[in-house]
């Protein structure tokens, strides 16, 4: 069974910061929550097919900086293909 990560007010705060700081567009609220939850819970890798907002190489430096500004580490945001390349 995969555990469900608990919610915390800091997750919502970080998600809002990612949106307001230009890491993600306003329409990507759920994606911001997903990333913020992973950062808050110190998840190492966030695996996603979402290359529009989450695994977008152009946005990674911005999101990394925004997370760091709040004291968090941005997880590695990768697609399944990128993850498979590391095991070859």
Plain-language structure description:
By secondary structure, the protein is mostly helical. 47% of the residues lie in helices and 7% in strands. It has helices at 9-20, 29-40, 60-69, 80-86; strands at 45-47, 76-78. A two-stranded parallel ribbon has the order 1-2. Helix 1 (9-20) crosses helix 2. The termini are far apart.
Can you tag this structure with a few keywords?
88 residues; mainly alpha; two-stranded parallel sheet; 2 strands
What's the gist of this structure?
By secondary structure, the chain is mainly alpha-helical. The protein has helices at residues 9-20, 29-40, 60-69, 80-86; strands spanning 45-47, 76-78.
SSE layout:
Layout: H1 9-20, H2 29-40, E1 45-47, H3 60-69, E2 76-78, H4 80-86
Parallel strand pairs: 1-2
Q: Can you tell me the overall shape? A: globular
Can you count the helices? Answer: 4
Helix content: 40-55%
Regions with little confidence, pLDDT below 50 for 5+ residues:
none
Terminal Cα separation, in Å?
27 Å
The succession of helices and strands, N to C, reads HHEHEH
Q: Please state roughly what percent of the residues sit in beta strands, choosing from under 5%, 5-15%, 15-25%, 25-35%, 35-45% or over 45%.
A: 5-15%
Instruction: Give the overall average pLDDT.
Output: 93
The main β sheet shows up as: 2 strands, parallel
Would you tell me the structural class of the helices and strands?
mainly alpha
Q: Numbering strands along the chain, what is their spatial order in the largest sheet?
A: 1-2
What's the number of extended β-strand segments?
A: 2
CA-based gyration radius: 13 Å
């Amino acid at each position: 069974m995969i555990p469900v990560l608990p919610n915390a007010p800091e997750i919502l705060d970080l998600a809002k910061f990612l949106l307001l700081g230009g890491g993600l567009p306003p329409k990507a609220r759920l994606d911001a929550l997903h990333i913020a939850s992973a950062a808050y819970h110190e998840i190492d890798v966030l695996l996603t097919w979402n290359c529009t907002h989450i695994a977008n190489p152009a946005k990674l430096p911005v999101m990394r900086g925004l997370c760091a500004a709040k004291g968090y580490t941005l997880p590695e945001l990768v697609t399944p293909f990128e993850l498979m390349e590391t095991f070859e």
